[in-house]
Amino acid sequence: MVHTNRVHKKTASNSTIVSGILSRAEVEGDESERRASLDGKHILQEEFGKKQVSASDSEIDWTFWGDVVSDYQAFAASHPQLLAKAIERGIPKSLRGMIWQLMSASKDHVLEETYLKLLKDPSPHEKSINRDLGRTFPHHAFFTEGQGIGQENLFNVLKAYSLYDPQVGYCQGLPFVAAILLLNMPDEEAFCLLVRLMHSYDLRGHFLPEMPKLQQRMVRDCSSQPYDRLVEDLLPVLHIHFIRQGIKSSMYCSQWFLTMFSYKFPLSVVFRIYDNVLASGVEAMFSFSIMLLAKNEQTLLSLKFDQLLVFLNSKMLDAYKVDGADDGINGVDYDVDQFVQDAVSMNITPFVLDQYATEYAELVRTRDAHAIEMDNLRNSNRTLQAQVHSLENNLAQLNAEHVNVLNELVMSRLRHEELESELVRYKLLYAEAMHQSEDAQSTQRLSRMSLFSRRTSNNS
Question: Which of 132, 206, 288, 372 can bridge 343 by disulfide, Cβ–Cβ 3.0-4.6 Å?
Fold first, then answer.
C-alpha cells in the first residue's frame, strides 16, 4: 500500500476524489449526530487495533491506515491527495468495511439500536423481499440458499429499511446494494451505511416512486440530461451513433446506477467502485460508466441496435480482461487497477455535473412553463369552444323560432287572404241580394200601379 512518506502531486487521476474527500471531511448533522459519529469512530478505532494485533497481511501499510482511522476527517482535510491516491489503488480488503464507515460517518450506535427494534416489527414488503433473496448473488457462498446467515442478514437489513423509510419501502436493486455492504461488515453496520448512502449520498432518489433522481440522471428527455451531456461532450461520435441506432442511456446505464454496478460486474470491480463512491459521492459512477463507453468506443461504433444492447449489458468489462485469463465465469481476471485509474482520470467533477443539472433544471422549468402555457391555452380554447357551441345552439334555436314565426306569418297571410276572399264573396252576395230586392220592389210597384190602373179603369 501507499506509504505516508511518499509525496503525490495533484493530478487529473485523483483530483475528483480529492474534491469529494474535502467536501465529506466536514462534520455533518447536529450535536447528537456528531456525538454518535464520534462514539462510532472510537469503536472503529478499537476494531482497527484488534485487526492490527492479529494481522497476518504484510502488504497492508498499517501506519498509513492507522493514521486514517485515528481521525479520518482531519487526515482527509490535511492529506486529501495522499488519501485519494490510496483509495484509487484500493482499500485493503480486511479494512474496507471499516474505512467505508469512516468515509461515510455511518457508524452510529443509536441507529444500530433502531435497527434492532425495527427487526421486531412486521413489514408489508416481506413477501417481495423474500422473493428476491434467491436472485441476489446466487452463486456466492455467503448468500447460497441453505446456508442461512447471508440471506437472513440481507432480509433483515432490507426489512428494517422498508420500515425505517416507508416512502421508499422496498425496491428491486436495493438487495444488491445492501449485499455488497454485508460482504464487508455486520448487518447492523450495513443497515447504518445503507441509511447513509440513501440520505447523505442522495441514492434515495433512485428508489423513490418514479425514481426521480435516476430519471434526472438517465432519461434522455432533453439535451441537458447530465449523463447524455457527458457522452455528447466527451464521446461525440459515439453519442451520434447511439442516436442513429435508437440507443438510450436508460437501456443500459440505469441498471449500473440503480445497483451501483453490483448486478453483473465482478465483486473485485464492484468493491473498488464503492471505494470511490463512498469517498467522492454517487457522482463517481459517472466516471466509471463513461470510461466503459470510451474504452469500448471503437467496438460500439461497429455494432447495430440489437448487438449494441447485448454488448452494453454484458460485455463492457471485457476490454479490461487480462490476456490469457480463463474464459470461465469464475476464472475471468480483470485489470481492476487500470479500470479504476482510467475512470478516475476522467476528472468528471461535481461542478461539471452541477452545471449540467442546472441546465437540465432550467430546461425543465422552461418546458414546464411552456406546458403550463399550453394547458392554459387549451383550457381557454376549450372554454371558447364551449361558448361557440353554446352560441351555435342559441343561434339554431333562434333560427328555429324564426322559422316558426315565418310559418305563422305565412299562415296568417293565408288566413287573411281567405278572409278577404270571403268578404268579397259576401259583398257580392250582398250586392246580388240588394239587386234582387230592388228588382222585387220594382216589380211590386209595377204590379201595384197596374192594379191601381185597372181599378181606376173599372170605376170609370
Answer: 288
Rounded CA-CA distance 57/96 in Å is 14
The conformation of residue 165, written as its DSSP 8-state character, comes to: -
C-alpha cell at 316: 463492457
Check if the beta carbon of residue 291 is closer than 8 Å to that of residue 300: no
Residue 111 burial class via C-beta count within 10 angstroms: exposed 0-12, middle 13-18, buried 19 and up: buried
Tell me how many degrees the CA angle 297-350-38 measures, rounded to the nearest 5: 125
Per the rule left: phi > 0, alpha: psi between -120 and 50, beta: everything else, 266 is beta
Confidence of residue 425 (pLDDT cuts 50, 70, 90): confident
CB atoms within 10 A of CB 23: 12
User: What is the C-alpha separation between 441 and 435, in angstroms, rounded?
Assistant: 10
User: Which pTM was predicted?
Assistant: 0.72
Task: Please state, in angstroms and as integers, the Cα–Cα distance from residue 147 to each residue in 83, 135, 371, following that order.
Answer: 38, 15, 55
Cβ contact 99:64 at 8 Å: no
pLDDT given at position 216: 65
Residue type, 110: V
Question: Cα dist. 416→404, 423, 424, 427 in Å?
Answer: 18, 10, 12, 16
Q: Are 374 and 318 in contact (CB under 8 A)?
A: no
Q: Which amino acid is at 118?
A: L
Place of cell 345552439: 393
What is the tens place of the pLDDT at every residue in 385-395?
999 999 999 99
Q: Is the pLDDT of residue 19 over 80?
A: no
